[in-house]
Structure formats: C-alpha cells, structure tokens
Amino acid sequence: MAVFRERRLPQRNLTIELPIQESTAAAAAGECRQRSALPPLPPFAAPCSGEHRHSDFEKIKVLGHGNDGTVYQVRHRRTGSIYALKTLAADDSISRRQIHREIDVLRRTDSPVVVRFHGVISSASGDVSVLLEYMDAGSLESLLMAGNRRPFPEAAIAGIARRVLLGLSYLHSQQIVHRDIKPSNLLVNTAGEIKIADFGVSKIMRRSLDPCVSYVGTCAYMSPERFDPDSYGGNYDAYAADVWSLGLTVLELHLGHFPLLLPGQRPDWATLMCAICFGEPPKLPETASENFRDFIARCLQKESSNRWSVAELLAHPFVAWDQEEADQAFRELLSLPP
C-alpha cells in the first residue's frame, strides 16, 4: 500500500507507515509520558557461529530503509554466503529500547516460518547490526507491486495465510506478539517460502495479562482495541491483535489495495483510526468464495474476544486448500517480472 505520511497533532508528530514510539492512548493525544534514559547497549557476540565483525562482510546493495536503520544485502568475504544485515542507529533512549526488544525476540526464535537470526555486531559508535537470513524474492508487498497490484488468486492466498498462521502459532507459543504483521514484513524466497520478519515493535508477554495496547507499529494494520481498549478489548487477549493484522493483510492481497480505504487514498491518522474502529467491514468482490469470506469475517471482528484464535483459524476450511494447488499458484506469482 502507499506510504502514509504525517498528520500534525498538538505537541506531536505521528508517522503512519513507519513504526512510531510506544505510547498510551493519552500520549497519542499529546500528553507524552516521560521515559528514563537507557544505558548504552552492551557489546553483542553472535551466537553459535562465533563472533562476527563488520569487516567480515561486503555490502552488495540496500534492501530497504526504516526510521530505525537500513537493511543491506551483504556477502561474507570468506565463505561467500549471502545475508541481510540490518543496521540500527542507537541514537536515543527510544531507539535503544527498540533495539534491545528486537534482539531479545530474535534470540528466542528458531523456526522455518520466521526469518533466521545469525547474530549481532556492535560498533564503537553504539550502532548495532543484526545479521539475518536473506530472503531473495523480497516481500509480499514487493510481489504485489511487481504485479501492478493485481489481486492474488485465492489458492495462493490460502497457502500464504496458512504459512503466516503457522508462524504466528510458533511466536505465540513463545509468548511473542508481533504487533506489525503486514505485507512488507512477510518475506519471500525463490523456494516459495514465506517467513515473518521485523520484530522491532514486538513484545514478549512476561505475564498472561501484560498490557499490549500501544501505538507502536503501522497504524493502518492496528486492531481496534489498540486504539480504544475500553470499547474493543473485552476479555483482553494481546495475541488477537496479530489475527486482525493478518486478516487485513490477506484481504489486501485479494483486493490489490488496502481494504479499509479507497484505492490510492492517502489518509491521515484520524482517518485510519475512524476506518478501523467505526467503519463498515470491507466488502469483498462477488467472486470471493464463501470460505474466504468467512475466514476474513473471523479475523476482522472489531471486538477482540470475538476473533478466532490462530489455532482455530488453522483448522478453517479456507486454509485447508489443497497444498499442491496453493503452492503452484504462489510459484506462478513468483514468476512475475521484478
């Protein structure tokens, strides 16, 4: 979807597309809470494979930019192996907090449906680089753009939904809430695999009732209870927010544009909040199957307690699409010109 720019609020700038600093609902209205300064990041050593240095790698090209750093494609000078190197600038207390969070989450993950973590490299300046598996076919967002936002076929979407649900099932079993599921954070390789990436705003649930309502992540994919927990967060379940984001993501792949707005519309924060919390459910084309309609409806319940869980969705008839047909449909999408 298009990058949403900024809307000026009293005493505050809100950036829609890129992750924004964690805050309460009151802070979103301008009453920012104070944060204590964090100590400098300690030096990190790469696990398992021994310690890495920046000089071990040759930068090939930039893969992407974010407000917290840059991702490069790099080659290990000795082995020739290709990786993604995410360089994070620890220039303030919020950045350091986010870096600590992302590294903490990555070190807990080991799954074929999550981008693999290979280690951390720190520099004397305080910047930190995270060495990750390189996914050579980009993201679902770039795949959608390569096809000029042509809608994905249902068979391919069924396979994608199943893969992401398996990833969420693994993360939730590790008490990790992703909080930023969207097409650009679901990476793809030419083997046809889809993996969850970017844990900069994720949260490890230390206790079952840890609060997880905040304005971190991408506003467009946030669930209603993250804007208004009093109205939509009954029987609070932090993991339900990832289900909402998944529902919007697969529906965007089906429609070819962000589901809650008109194609090409560039909204501000208030427009997004109103669409998510008060807007009518997205309308699907008449060609959409009943199973797909029901799957989307189970994901996009405004009341979080009414959404199906990841386990329930994995048993949904839509996800039970013939695996060979789903894989073939996705491979055909990968043949789209870059």
UniProtKB/TrEMBL annotation:
Keyword Cell wall biogenesis/degradation: no
Enzyme Commission number, as recorded: 2.7.12.2
Chain ranges of the Protein kinase domain: 57-319
One Gene Ontology molecular-function label: ATP binding
Reactions listed under catalytic activity: L-seryl-[protein] + ATP = O-phospho-L-seryl-[protein] + ADP + H(+); L-threonyl-[protein] + ATP = O-phospho-L-threonyl-[protein] + ADP + H(+); L-tyrosyl-[protein] + ATP = O-phospho-L-tyrosyl-[protein] + ADP + H(+)
GO biological process: response to other organism; response to stress
SUPFAM superfamilies, sorted: Protein kinase-like (PK-like) (SSF56112)
Keywords noted in UniProt: ATP-binding, Kinase, Nucleotide-binding, Phosphoprotein, Serine/threonine-protein kinase, Transferase
Listed InterPro entries: Kinase-like_dom_sf, Prot_kinase_dom, Ser/Thr_kinase_AS
Annotated family: Belongs to the protein kinase superfamily. STE Ser/Thr protein kinase family. MAP kinase kinase subfamily.
Full protein name: mitogen-activated protein kinase kinase
The organism of origin for this protein: Apostasia shenzhenica
